[in-house]
Amino acid sequence: MRPSEKYHLINEMLETPEIIRNFRPELAQDWANKIKKTKHLFVTGEGSSRIFPAKNMLDHALKQKVEWNILTHGARQAADYDLRKYILLAASNSGQTRELVDLYSSMPDACRFAVTANHKTALEKVADDTRILSCGSEQAVAATKSVVEQALVYQSILQGPEWENQFDAGDAADDVLRQDIPETIINDMARADHIYFAGREDGVAEELTLKTNEIIRKKSSFLEGTYALHGIEEVMEDNELLVLIDPFDAEMAAYERILIKGANIKVIAISSKDTPFPTIQIPEVAGFNNYLQLMAGWNLLVSVGLELAIDIDRPARARKVGNSI
């Protein structure tokens, strides 16, 4: 990814390493203390403001064996549930997300925490307590730096041991965003008509699926779990491509047999380890690997967008709430 005065998206992505370095893990200490008392947390919101922040939090909570009941669904679906036992946690970069404001307005007796990038918003009015992000507003339609800071806030609530690696994570993020993506990988992805993403249920692959639509205007699908190995090969075509995020060692031979040989599609990987596939190799930093995988995916998508001469700031139809672009 090259620094660029032309594209807000690139510049905003390149701000994220400093956001990681400067983040204060104690920011939501009081929220953590309240959640410890109930041990019931429901994380909601819409789009990028939920996918990676919420699922990254769930991933870390399970790995750290946090004894909380943490669930996540979108705000409209959340309205169908009895959440009286739960503390609600949600992010909205604009603070104007209608579905979320409606949900919080409908639950005045609940404890409602909110994260936004703006002051005096509709969400802040209906939340019981709000944290304002330091990253500032985004000019590009695709959310990037806000997603990372939202995820940092959520992860800090868990009070895990990884924060001693915070500065190393910022340095590694800078390296990942600036590394050169092999031309063969860029060209294969640029030619693909449909791009699949497969990986852990931690928000990375799913968020990159959405970013593929917004940044390079290609159709994409998130294949949860082992879905990529159980039936979808029947309809895959040779002009499609699969991106594996941190693949399991035990599954690599199956991807090669079922998809490359069986379905004749190209497979690439983002991983800290060697794989049998063309691979964007990234460092490991304990507690922050999900962020580095996400940023490697950003770098890949921006590189493909530049190759295709797309205006990566301005999609034809997609819009960000509160952004006039």
Secondary structure layout plus pairing:
Blueprint: H1 8-14, H2 16-22, H3 29-38, E1 40-45, H4 48-63, E2 69-72, H5 75-78, E3 87-92, H6 98-105, E4 111-116, H7 122-126, E5 129-132, H8 145-157, H9 166-178, H10 183-191, E6 194-199, H11 204-216, E7 219-224, E8 240-245, H12 252-261, E9 266-271, E10 279-281, H13 289-307
Parallel strand pairs: 1-2, 1-3, 3-4, 4-5, 6-7, 6-8, 8-9, 9-10
Helix pairs in contact: 2-9, 4-8, 4-11, 9-13, 10-13, 11-13
Q: Would you kindly provide a written description of the structure presented here, covering whatever features stand out?
A:
This protein is of the alpha/beta class. It contains 13 helices and 10 strands. The longest helix has 19 residues. The model has no long low-confidence stretch (mean pLDDT 95).
Summarize the structure.
This protein is of the alpha/beta class. The chain contains 13 helices and 10 strands.
Give the CATH class of the largest domain: Alpha Beta
Q: What order do the strands of the largest sheet run in, or round the barrel if closed?
A: 2-1-3-4-5
Query: What's the structural domain tally?
Result: 2
What is the molecular shape? globular
The H-level CATH homologous superfamily of the largest domain, spelled out, is Glucose-6-phosphate isomerase like protein, domain 1
What is the percent of helical residues? 40-55%
Q: What is the fold-level CATH name, i.e. the topology of the largest domain? A: Rossmann fold
The largest pleated sheet is described as:
5 strands, parallel
Can you give keywords for this protein?
325 residues, five-stranded parallel sheet, Rossmann fold, globular, 13 helices
